[in-house]
Design a protein that fits this description.
This protein has 200 residues and is of the alpha/beta class. The protein is built from 8 helices and 7 strands; from the N terminus they run ααβαβαββααβααββ. Strands 3-2-1-4-5-7-6 form a 7-stranded mixed β-sheet, sandwiched between helices.
């Protein structure tokens, strides 16, 4: 993969991305794990892939607006072809920085992608969330994460995947979030699901 970028990698895998049920499962668990709240004005799905979390949020949370962002044009193209996709604003763009103003969002979701984004992502989520806003993200369990050497070389070095729930929680607290909850999905391919809020 020398000289290959992450956008190119995910452009190349977009057509087969939905074949792996893991991604849909994690996205739906994150959305369903959010604390009940009044109808959100804005939900942001960061690194949306083919849109599982954005679509689930649109259906479950019934927000006034959903913005879904991914750096891969091919992933966004595939996401926008899904049933229900017309209710969502699909954007090709970076996760850091997000093209949104401070305090604009009620909910930020990031499914199966934080380990690809690096340590700058959680503070960016906090920036775009209003006081009291919620974040839900997942990250692999270190013991179950075995990327190929070529893929590992593309990953950011500033955010190693955590070994335990306390390490996953620290990702949220280090970015200034409070009310942190962490659960772990079942083997064999475990992920930490982290839910937190911006202090009101």
């Amino acid at each position: 993969m020398a000289g290959v970028s992450l956008p190119a990698v995910f452009d190349a895998t977009a057509d087969a991305y939905d074949d792996d049920p893991h991604h849909r499962r994690i996205a739906e668990l994150l959305v369903s794990g959010l604390q009940p709240a009044p109808t959100p004005d804005l939900v942001v799905d960061v690194a949306t892939g083919t849109g599982f979390a954005a679509l689930a949020a649109s259906e479950v949370l019934t927000p006034r607006r959903v913005v879904a962002v991914d750096i891969s044009p091919r992933m966004i193209e595939a996401a926008a072809a899904n049933p229900g996709a017309e209710a969502i604003e699909w954007r090709v763009g970076p996760a850091v920085p997000l093209d949104l103003p401070d305090g604009a969002a009620d909910v930020v979701v990031c499914a199966s992608a934080l380990h690809l984004l690096g340590a700058g992502a959680p503070p960016e989520w906090r920036r775009v969330l209003r006081p009291g806003g919620q974040v839900a993200f997942s990250i692999p369990v270190a013991a179950d994460f075995s990327p190929s050497p070529a893929f590992a070389a593309l990953l950011p070095a500033d955010l190693p995947v955590p070994a335990d729930e306390e390490g996953a929680a620290r990702i949220a607290t280090a970015a200034g979030f409070g009310s942190v909850r962490v659960t772990t999905t079942a083997p064999p391919r475990r992920s930490f699901l982290v839910f937190a809020r911006v202090p009101a």
